[in-house]
Amino acid sequence: MDITGNALVVGGGGGIGRACAVLLAKEGACGVVVADLNLQAASDTLAECETITPNKTFKGKALKIDVTQEYSVCEVFSDIVQTFGRIDYCVNCVGIGAQEATDITSLSLTEFQRFLDINATGMFLVTKQASIVMRSQEAQLISPNSLSRGETRGCIVNLGSASSLVASAGVLPYTASKHAAIGLSKNSG
Length: 189
What we know:
alpha/beta, two-stranded antiparallel sheet, SDR_fam, quinone binding
């Protein structure tokens, strides 16, 4: 891969998000910001990034983020722009999964809303702020080694799951929120 810019990984404290942050560092990103609700987990991921990067000028930061709160998302993006100047890659990995199957007749509105707040609204807030930042920054070459690849202001990757495409019995709130993630990503333009 040709990773040369600054990356933000939301939900980078564990799982797929952690793997993404570490891979971005390993592939030579200039900077990696690991944002997670669990600041200690984000810091642990960042420590791994710092040990694996081949980039001698690597700059990293761990930040706490609550994707259900717009002010928290805005603060993280403001901090990143102040510290790094730009965001070239935003990987949105934050999400919760269903722990057990639940029939719709016993599902509470509170539980359904919790999934939407984190998996759909959280993705919306992060995608919105990343779009604002990326649209305002100067375009840069995608690859200094391959001019034919053109320019970009940045790239946003929103993670879904198999449930983004196929309904699974008993996990209505998860499936609905993951379907929303695909719709959001397809329409963010």
